[in-house]
Design the sequence.
């Protein structure tokens, strides 16, 4: 081992940007709404370097104010760079604070880049006998490499590589690292806006360096070049020399290398821990403590990094696999064969992590396995099936796990009768009320098992729902959660069955060994996520919401989805024909107004007709490609003034209605039931609202006659039944009136007044009985628009008011309801201070942009601060109603079923003899779901189809 001291110089911004973009698809947002991705990414990298290399000396180098000298040489230097993301700007003060608490020197000099600071320090340290390692992915640093100066580059997928002279020579095809400056000067650098020599790319630059050795020598021998290249080189010598200067790292920054200042010293552990706790970095605290534990420091070596240095696994992949999947012949097992085998910063996988996954053989082994299963108090299970569609899927197997790193897979026979027989063996487990069942997207598993006449009873824990309550804005699929919270990449389904297409295998085609690894891993990882999320639910104060609303609702939705709703396909056929006629008529009217025929569905042709031929707008907006913008947001503003625009919007609406619903719905009828079965997603809308998919029954248009007619296609199951629709009346306005404690609105609701007429009466200062239809309409638009932050511009476009009149109406509205305005301001202030807002039941909506410096971005967050609690509270209330009604229907053994939830409306298939009793029950439960100062009001109606009942 060398006694030569080692200095590590960290290029701060390079690692900060790298860390920030590593989390770009799933940013780390804490409970205050802060984007902590950049801080976490940088700290992971810094601790990784310290843990791997245990440097004697270390400093972190920052830019400050850019390079004054380079900008003076070339005004456009780095001028093309996008503005630094706000998540990085806000991270810098925190990173400074952490580094100071860790007693790590921060090297920064106004008017110089970190490259120059690092270059200067590296050369000064070299003179004092140090080996210096520049921690950066930036290739520009290769010019500094020497016998004692190295690049220490993070590589994709984890780990580092060290570039010494041989590596630089090979990478850039040069004989001396200093020639990297010529290389960069010749080819330029788009990211730094260094122009380079026109027409010279990487390959040509390497060719020139091989032939001439430097840029100056190239210019001296330009007569040897030919054609256009000769002309370009000779014409741009000044530009080339400027580019070389810009690419040269400065070595004379006024900074000093004092070895004692750069020595690694013990951090202020309590202070660092306090900062991490404030930022909510729980895992990072553990990592930090491990990095600076006595054991870690004592065992640290000081050997020089090499290009292939990585933490060696304690077992070989072969050994790990032998400790993993195996045939389970009689119940028994063993423990994972090895302790953790990989660095915390290299993503864990089944290949490098010890585990014990086994398949369970039929017969006695299965019976003994079930006996052991029944002795557990909490078990994670996961079904493997032939399809993602729970209604058609058949069981291929079920995996179980109740200890981290261990699990078992039970394969199911293809024969349905034999599979049903095996399911009966597991019935005691699934129907045991005393055993908690854990899963990821349990609704799917519950629906699959329901087809085998099996109920999943007992307490449930769904990791997907738990994470939704912890961080609603992230994605919630298991792979993302495993990578984010466990630093683990699960086996990909494509590794097992291939990509989509005719060559994709069925799960039944996969070998038992591979299927065991894949399936049990899912259960094992889900079990580990459960342990992680249990803590976080408590810390976010959402455990009650999870236990009392989202989990019970899971069972309700599963039952509704299995039930489905009957569809009148013959009616839709006739409606499709009527729409064809309507669309054809509109086409002819549009052609007549335009004076020519064209493809109305083509945005390009439509733009030319409207804005070049008809010249409807003086300065029409264009896309980046130069095409006229013809989106609905553009055309809707023009519709009031141009009849052809309204016809085009009608044409689009009818065409979409026909393709999306009228023609598509019959194709989505499930053949085995003869009904349409939508999927309700609990984890899509950040506000807490449910979303409907395959088909989406929540977006059927109801403002147009043709749109409303689609609802006529949804009918009862038989003549013995009728459809009942129960709809909350103006629930969002009632909630905002209650939350704002606005007495005027509260009294109007309590007195049963028409709230829009009441508002119009007060805003327009006319008696209630003299309110005109137009005044009521404008008041209605403001009532609902206020929740969504409507502006004078937006209101004027939704009404016949001018922008001035709209502004006056909004101002008068706030004067009329001062407490409402105060409540809205209070919500925004709370969000600014805490980073989130809450519904009446404590559901949080995190608003990471609430303190953004960008006014547009901040404005959107401020509007969300007001409307999210309103929308979310409405969503929570109807969920409570659904749970209570479902429980009453189940307890009473009624034949009637709840079928659909569409925004504030519930739709039921009511057995006619139960109609009177259930009408009262449903109305009572919905109105009593949540008690506020404003009473909830539910309108109930029935009919032979959904339209009649609505």
Sequence:
């Amino acid at each position: 081992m060398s006694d030569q001291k080692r200095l590590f110089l960290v290029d701060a911004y390079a690692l900060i940007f790298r860390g920030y973009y590593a989390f770009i698809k799933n940013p780390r947002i804490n409970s205050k709404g802060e984007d902590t991705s950049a801080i976490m990414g940088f700290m992971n990298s810094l601790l990784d370097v310290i843990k791997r290399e245990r440097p004697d000396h270390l400093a972190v180098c920052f830019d400050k104010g850019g390079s004054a000298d380079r900008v003076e040489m070339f005004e456009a230097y780095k001028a093309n760079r996008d503005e630094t993301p706000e998540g990085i700007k806000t991270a810098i003060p925190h990173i400074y604070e952490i580094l100071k608490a860790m007693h790590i020197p921060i090297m920064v000099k106004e008017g110089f880049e970190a490259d120059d600071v690092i270059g200067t320090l590296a050369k000064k340290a070299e003179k004092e006998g140090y080996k210096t390692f520049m921690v950066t992915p930036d290739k520009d640093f290769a010019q500094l490499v020497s016998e004692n100066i190295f690049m220490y580059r993070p590589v994709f997928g984890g780990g580092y590589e060290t570039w010494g002279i041989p590596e630089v020579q090979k990478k850039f095809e040069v004989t001396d690292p200093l020639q990297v400056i010529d290389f960069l000067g010749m080819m330029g650098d788009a990211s730094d806006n260094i122009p380079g020599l026109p027409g010279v790319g990487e390959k040509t630059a390497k060719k020139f360096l091989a032939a001439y050795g430097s840029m100056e020598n190239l210019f001296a021998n330009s007569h040897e070049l030919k054609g256009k290249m000769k002309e370009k080189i000779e014409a741009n010598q000044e530009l080339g020399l400027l580019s070389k200067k810009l690419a040269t790292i400065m070595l004379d920054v006024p900074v000093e290398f004092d070895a004692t200042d750069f020595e690694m010293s013990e951090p202020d552990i309590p202070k660092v821990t306090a900062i991490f706790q404030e930022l909510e970095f729980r895992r990072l605290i553990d990592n930090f403590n491990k990095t600076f534990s006595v054991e870690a420091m004592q065992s640290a070596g000081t050997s020089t990094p090499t290009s292939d240095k990585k933490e060696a696994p304690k077992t070989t992949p072969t050994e790990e696999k032998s400790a993993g999947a195996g045939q389970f012949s009689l119940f028994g097992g063993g423990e994972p064969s090895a302790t953790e085998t990989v660095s915390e910063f290299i993503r864990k996988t089944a290949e490098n992590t010890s585990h014990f996954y086994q398949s369970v053989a039929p017969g006695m082994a299965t019976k003994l396995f079930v006996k052991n299963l029944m002795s557990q108090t909490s078990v994670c299970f996961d079904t493997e099936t032939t399809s993602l569609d729970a209604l058609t899927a058949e069981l291929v197997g079920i995996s179980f796990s109740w200890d981290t790193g261990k699990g078992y897979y039970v394969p199911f026979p293809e024969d349905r009768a034999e599979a049903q027989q095996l399911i009966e063996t597991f019935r005691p487990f699934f129907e045991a009320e005393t055993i908690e069942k854990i899963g990821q997207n349990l609704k799917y598993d519950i629906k699959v098992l329901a087809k085998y006449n099996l109920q999943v009873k007992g307490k449930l824990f769904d990791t997907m729902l738990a994470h939704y309550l912890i961080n609603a804005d992230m994605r919630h699929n298991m792979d993302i959660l495993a990578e984010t919270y466990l630093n683990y990449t699960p086996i990909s389904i494509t590794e097992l069955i291939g990509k989509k297409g005719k060559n994709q295998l069925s799960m039944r085609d996969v070998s038992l060994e591979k299927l065991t690894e894949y399936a049990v891993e899912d259960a094992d990882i889900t079990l580990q996520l459960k342990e992680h999320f249990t803590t976080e639910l408590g810390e976010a104060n959402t455990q009650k919401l999870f236990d009392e609303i989202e989990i019970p609702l899971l069972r309700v939705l599963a039952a509704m989805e299995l039930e489905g709703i009957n569809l009148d396909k013959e009616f839709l056929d006739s409606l499709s024909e009527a729409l064809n006629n309507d669309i054809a008529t509109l086409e002819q009217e549009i052609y007549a107004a335009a004076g020519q025929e064209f493809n109305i569905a083509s945005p390009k042709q439509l733009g030319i007709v409207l804005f070049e031929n008809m010249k409807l707008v003086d300065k029409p907006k264009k896309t980046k490609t130069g095409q006229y913008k013809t989106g609905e947001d553009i055309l809707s503003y023009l519709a009031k003034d141009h009849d052809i625009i309204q016809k085009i919007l009608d044409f689009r609406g009818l065409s979409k209605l026909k393709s999306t619903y009228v023609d598509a719905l019959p194709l989505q009828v499930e053949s085995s039931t003869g009904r349409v079965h939508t999927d309700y997603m609990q984890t899509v809308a950040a506000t807490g609202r449910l979303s409907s998919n395959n088909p989406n029954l929540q977006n059927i248009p109801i403002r147009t006659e043709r749109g409303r007619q689609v609802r006529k296609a949804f009918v009862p199951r038989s003549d013995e039944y009728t459809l009942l629709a129960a709809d909350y009346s103006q629930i969002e306005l009632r909630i905002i009136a209650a939350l704002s404690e606005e007495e005027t609105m509260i009294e109007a609701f309590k007195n049963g007044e028409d709230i829009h007429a009441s508002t119009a009466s007060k805003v327009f200062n006319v008696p209630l009985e003299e309110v005109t239809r137009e005044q009521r309409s404008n008041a209605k638009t403001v009532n609902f628009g206020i929740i969504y932050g409507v502006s004078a511009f937006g209101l004027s476009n939704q009404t016949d008011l001018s922008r001035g009149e709209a502004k006056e109406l909004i101002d008068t509205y706030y004067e009329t309801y001062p407490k409402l305005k105060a409540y809205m301001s209070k919500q925004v202030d709370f969000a600014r201070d805490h980073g989130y807002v809450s519904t009446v039941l404590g559901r949080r909506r995190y608003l990471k942009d609430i303190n953004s410096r960008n006014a547009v971005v901040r404005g959107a967050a401020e509007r969300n601060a007001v409307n999210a609690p309103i929308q979310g509270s409405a969503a929570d209330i109807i969920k409570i109603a659904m749970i209570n009604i479902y429980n009453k229907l189940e307890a009473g053994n009624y034949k009637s079923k709840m079928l659909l939830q569409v925004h504030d409306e519930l739709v039921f298939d009511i057995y006619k003899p139960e109609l009177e009793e259930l009408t009262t029950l449903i109305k009572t439960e919905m109105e009593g779901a949540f008690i506020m100062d404003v009473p909830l009001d539910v309108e109930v109606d029935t009919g032979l189809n959904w339209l009649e009942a609505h």
